[in-house]
Structures are given as structure tokens and as C-alpha cells.
Amino acid sequence: MTVYNFSAGPAVLPTPVLEQAQSEFTDYQGSGMSVMELSHRSSFFDAIIKDAKKRLRELMNIPDNYHILFLQGGASLQFSMVPLNLAQNKKALYVNTGSWSKKAIGAAKMLDNVAVEVIASSEEDNFTYIPDITPDMIDQDAAYLHITTNNTIVGTAFQTIPDAGKVPIVADMSSNILANDYNVEDFGIIYAGAQKNIGPAGLTVVIIRDDLLGLCEVNEPMLDYKIHTEANSLYNTPPTFAIYIAQLVFKWLQDLGGLPEILKQDQEKAQLLYDAIEKSSIFTSPVRQDSRSITNIPFVTGDEELDKKFNAEALAAGFENLKGHRSVGGMRASLYNAFPKEGVTALVAFMEKFEKENGGA
Amino acid sequence: MTVYNFSAGPAVLPTPVLEQAQSEFTDYQGSGMSVMELSHRSSFFDAIIKDAKKRLRELMNIPDNYHILFLQGGASLQFSMVPLNLAQNKKALYVNTGSWSKKAIGAAKMLDNVAVEVIASSEEDNFTYIPDITPDMIDQDAAYLHITTNNTIVGTAFQTIPDAGKVPIVADMSSNILANDYNVEDFGIIYAGAQKNIGPAGLTVVIIRDDLLGLCEVNEPMLDYKIHTEANSLYNTPPTFAIYIAQLVFKWLQDLGGLPEILKQDQEKAQLLYDAIEKSSIFTSPVRQDSRSITNIPFVTGDEELDKKFNAEALAAGFENLKGHRSVGGMRASLYNAFPKEGVTALVAFMEKFEKENGGA
């Protein structure tokens, strides 16, 4: 049985990447060692981390005044690092678009010397849309404006990045990094857990503009962006194997034609599923049309029992991890870059069959 | 050419572990998915993390009132987490036995409300021995006594754990965890970066006694042991693949006969090398006899040019990463659990040959 993995993260990885990593797993490029066994100070690993950075810079068109960091701790650690590094004794603005935004807001609020202001929220409507952010909402004295560009659980995404004037935008891009047409120059900081669109869990990518380093005194060296920047992400031992897999994923994306090409594929995959939902008489999208994500697509029948039946039959048919997050219910298909189009086609066919068998029009 | 990897970390891993991980790299136990692609909330991964914990508990005889955490950030993040969780508005005692102790001391000193006291140091003698710690040196009001049980760079190790009375001992055990006969009950907290004796870089194992949780308010959720304990290390996405490799390493150790057996092997390997150094007329150990580590063994000729020649010839002969740390010079052999005895025998033979060719007696 072909298995299609719709997991929201850790998520499906490109088959060619897995196959290459497998083939050289015990002997990396004739070194006689696994990548996991390489010293992080070795010339082998030096070449890996430099190449990973270079490729990510090329893929995302990251200007020279931005640093690329490979850190640990996931987006959750960034929720504290961002305000500690940028907003001590200042105000920080947040847009609340879902569970992860709320966690970011909560972590900032725990810091005594950071004034947190939530300038917009869609919580009153179960986060089913992205609120409008207009320039007049942005206090120009704020340290930053934090947004979650894509909301993994509810399936919304910023279609355009707000104009925040001179206030840097800090973005949690965990679930749509490398699957958007945003412009890096519109951000002060971009951060992303790797386990959705980059590689294995345990790696966090941070892209930070040079002028945002060293603004506040940070009392924990491992939480200080400046220290990691000056050490080229080698302040301590980095997650070497995860960085190697990320390097292979970046290369795979470049070989495919880069972001414009993968974005086209992502949009086609999403369109297939959204079209199926639109024409269905039993499935609907809970998300407002103008706010829909192309990477995380929830859908529901409106009938808990029917959702449950669908999820059980889908799982039995090889559709893994389709069950929606408990806070939304129903189903959710995460269609990251590595998710194959055939998987969407197969899901759509399965949905049509299910609909016929279960009283659909 | 057979390659022997003497790296101090990331370090050599057991061949059977690498082979098993390679064989199921793209299809874990018939799931159709790589371990890296498994959701951390899946039943597959749940079984992995539970089994890893269970095996580590068995291997180290960890009592029930200790929690096992799988975290990120390395020992370096622990340097801040330990004082934040245990010593705010209190005194913290440290023994300074090398570069990593100094980093731990430095990180604690950065916290305004922690009073750091270094109660003993071997710095005046280049850290070539472990200072004696006697009960009268321990202020019984201190939050903890921090020691580095094994010093990777200088090659010293605590042969016995000091008696600190009721003050909990916090140990950075990164380079000799699972390669000692310490008693877990003698510690309040044990922490270790995985990349030496456990698995790949990017995983930190923390073993913490129940009564040490929740003592201080920690303003960064990801730095709070209590949060990670209550979430069973799943507060956010953990480094899933690294935990899986650790599980395989723990199983490998148990299959070998557990810690008593591996410790016997480690001692034999170390003895082989120390004997060769003792009987050599050109190599010496810079470490005082009663303080020597069995996992990290530095040796020098006393002649920088000769060290350089040895390192170049050794590297050409397949002895990888033998070069000593720049702060000590000379050579260093890291003989972690996965390092094969044949590698030590081969090194000793190579040393004898080199000695004959280079004016040895």
C-alpha cells in the first residue's frame, strides 16, 4: 500500500533526499564516517554548513545584511529569544492568528520588562481569517511587529506582508518557509522550525537583519543572537545531521527550479484540494477564502461522527496523519513541498468515493 | 584503509546502530515513513521515546523520583537553565576543572540574582588534576554544587563523587555518561550533550530529581524543567531522530551486558593506551595519575614539531581527529563506548613504530 503522509510536522521529506542520506549514512563521501560522527569543526562539516547557508541564501534571495543561523529549540525558544534580544524595556506588537501566535504572545508577556500589545486578533471567529493590518495600527516606537505567516492548525496564511513602516516585522514562518513569495527584505527576523518544510526536527533556522543584533543585553549566552552570529552557528555543537539533511533539501529545491517552481507546484496541489472541497456537498473549508493557506488545508463535514468515519477509512487506505488538530476537528492535509501531487490526487479521489458512499449529492 | 575516529564529539557511533538506522531509514518498521517523517504525537514515536527512557533508566539504575528529559541546546543551554531553575536569589557553588566548567561558571555569573562561588579550581596547574572536595568546603545553604565529572579537553575525571551533604550535586556528565560507575542518587541533576556517548548532536539528556522542580520562577518556558517534565519532553517538537538513535544506542549497550560490561571494556581500552604512554620514552600524559579520564586521553611529546609530525602521519594512516585541543596541544584520543578496542591496539602499534623511527629509546 502506498502511504501518503499528511503530517503537520515532523513531516514528509523528499524521497531523493532520504535515498541519498541512506546511501551515504555509514560512509559520508568516502570519509569512513557517518555525518553524525563528523566533528563539527571538521572540514567535512564546515563544507556542509557553508553550502547549506549558501543554498538557502540563494533560494530565498536573502540580502547580505541578513545573517542565517542554524539553532536549536524550535520556534518555541524563539518566542522568548525575540523579545529578550529586541524588546527589553520596549513595546512589542503582536497579531494573534492562532495557537502558535498565542504561545508567542504568552512567552513575551512572561518577561517583566517587555510591554506586549496585541494589535489585531481573529480569535473571536476561531482564527478562521487573517485580520487586516494597516499602517495606522503600528506604533512606530515599537521594537517589532510579530506575525505568524502561516497558521498550521487553522490553515490560514498572510497573503501579503503588512506595511509596518520602520518597525521590523518578526515572522514565525515555520509552516510556510520556502513555500511563499514573500520578500525577505520586508522582515527584520524570520524564524522557522525545520520539521515542516526544511528537514528533521531539532533544527531552527533564523534569518536576522544585521542592525537587530546586540540591541539588548541577554543574560543567557545561548539565547543571544549576537553570540550565535559571531560564532557562525558554532558557538556550541550544532545539530549537525539535521543541518546536513537541510542542505540536501535545499539542493533538491534548487535542482527542481527553486522557489518559483516549487511554489507553482504547491499552488497546484492546494488548488486540487480546495476545488474538491468547493464542489463537494459534504466537505467544507472552515477558513475564509481570502486567508487560506496552501500548506495546511483543514476541511470538515460538520458532523463529528462522519469526520471520524472518514478519518478511520482514510487511515486504513494509507492516508496518514489526516486527522485535524483537536482544536479544529475534522481533517487537515498538510501539503508541504515534499508532499507528492499524486497524494493529493489520490486523496481527492478518495473523498469523492467517500462522498458517494455517504449520502453526498 | 580502516578509519578510526577519535573525535571528542560528535563522535563515533556503534556500527550495529548505524547499520540498523540505515536499513530502516526510508521505511521505519513497515510504516512507509522515515523516523524523521513521523509525527512526534504518533504511536510510532511514542513507542520510541518511551522505550528510550525505559532503557536509560535501566542502564543507569535511575530511581523513580528522577525524571528523564530529552531536550535541545546542548550542555551550553544547561549552563543557564541550572541556575535559573535552582539558584535565583541563592548561592551556587562550582568546581572549576576546565574550559567547560569555566563556561558553566560564566553563564551562572551572568544572572544578576545568582551568587556564584568557585570553591575549588585546578586552573593554576592547567587543569591537570581534579581538586579534592571535602564536606567542610560546602556551604549547606547553597542551591547546588556544580561539577564537570569528565573534562573532555584536559582528560581528567572525578574518580569519586564528593560528599556535599544535603546540597544537591549538579553534574555536567557530557563526556562520561554511560562510562562510569557513579550512583545516580548522589546527584540532584545530571545533564549531558548526546554527541559523545549517546547519539547525534542536537539532543541533551537531563536527569533531574523530583524535589528540584519548580523551585524558581523561570520566565522562559523552554528553559523551565518543570514544563518539560510535565509535558514528558513533548512541550514542543523534540529532536525525534536523535532520540531514536539514542534508543538504539541504549539497546546496543543493554545487549552488550549493560554498564558493568561496557565499563570493563572502556577501562581495558584506556589501560592499553595509558600503559603505552607510561612505557614510552617520547610520549607522556599531562594529567596527574589519580585524575585520569578513561574517555578522553591526551598525550604529548613535549616537542611541538614532533607532535605535529605524529598528527600528520597518524591522520595519513587513518587515525582521524587525534589532534589535541588547541589549549593543550599534542594528541588526544577520545575512547567513547562505541570506539573499538582494535582502534586502540592499532594506535598503540602506530605509536611504537613512530617512536622507533623518531629517536625513541
UniProtKB/TrEMBL annotation, chains A, B:
The protein's annotated pathway? Amino-acid biosynthesis; L-serine biosynthesis; L-serine from 3-phospho-D-glycerate: step 2/3
Q: Name one GO biological process term.
A: L-serine biosynthetic process
Q: Which residues bind pyridoxal 5'-phosphate?
A: A75, S76, W100, T152, D172, Q195, N236, T237
Which keywords describe this protein according to UniProt?
Amino-acid biosynthesis, Aminotransferase, Cytoplasm, Pyridoxal phosphate, Serine biosynthesis, Transferase
Residues with N6-(pyridoxal phosphate)lysine modification: K196
| Principal cellular location given in the protein's record | cytoplasm
Is Cell wall biogenesis/degradation given among the entry's keywords?
A: no
Residue sites binding L-glutamate per the record: R41
Every Aminotransferase class V domain range: 3-347
Q: Which GO terms describe its cellular component?
A: cytoplasm
Look up the record and name the cofactor or cofactors this protein needs.
pyridoxal 5'-phosphate
- Source domain of life is Bacteria
Record note on quaternary structure: Homodimer.
| Function per UniProt | Catalyzes the reversible conversion of 3-phosphohydroxypyruvate to phosphoserine and of 3-hydroxy-2-oxo-4-phosphonooxybutanoate to phosphohydroxythreonine.
* Similarity annotation: Belongs to the class-V pyridoxal-phosphate-dependent aminotransferase family. SerC subfamily.
Q: What name appears for this protein in its UniProt entry? A: Phosphoserine aminotransferase
Organism taxonomic ancestry: Bacteria, Bacillati, Bacillota, Bacilli, Lactobacillales
* Protein encoded by which gene: serC
